[in-house]
Specification:
Blueprint lengths: L5 H14 L5 H12 L6 E2 L5 E2 L4 E2 H8 L4 H13 L1 H18 L4 H10 L7 H14 L6
Helix pairs in contact: 1-2, 1-5, 2-7, 5-6, 6-7
Length: 142
């Protein structure tokens, strides 16, 4: 964790705390690193737009939250960008959705977080997240 500045360490620590009650602490912390460099890159417009510490796909967030109006959608974008806990809750919801769909298979859950129903396309993503999960298990995150 010496590669990260104080703000990034806080994002990683918070991610772990938010995910821990659902046994997703290390996973969520690793996703924050892979997706946003632990909060340093919270926007992505390539392909599908995603925002926040966990790069929640906007189209997924809008659909899951029933955001039909432009005002509702703008509020979601702003909250994803500025409110880590809000993004963590959406990321956890997404992870748990895929966990249930894949009968608890961690690799498929993480791959689907990145690639949706085409989880096979998320194998490289799983490798990245797995690497950070293993590294984070050696750190004091509580």
């Amino acid at each position: 964790m010496n590669l990260f500045d104080a703000e990034q360490k806080e994002v990683i620590q918070n991610s772990y705390r938010y995910g821990k009650p659902m046994n997703l602490g290390h996973t969520l912390a690793a996703i924050s690193i892979v997706e946003s460099s632990a909060g340093k890159q919270k926007t992505r417009f390539r392909n599908d737009a995603s925002f926040g510490h966990y790069h929640i796909l906007l189209k997924t967030a809008f659909k899951r939250l029933g955001a039909d109006t432009e005002d509702e959608q703008i509020q979601i974008v702003l909250r994803l960008y500025y409110d880590q806990r809000y993004g963590a809750n959406l990321a956890i919801t997404e992870l748990l959705y895929w966990k249930q769909r894949h009968y608890g298979d961690w690799k498929k859950m993480v791959a689907s977080y990145n690639a949706g129903n085409s989880w096979e396309n998320g194998k490289n993503y799983v490798d990245k997240v797995s690497y950070y999960v293993l590294e984070l298990q050696h750190c004091k995150l509580d």
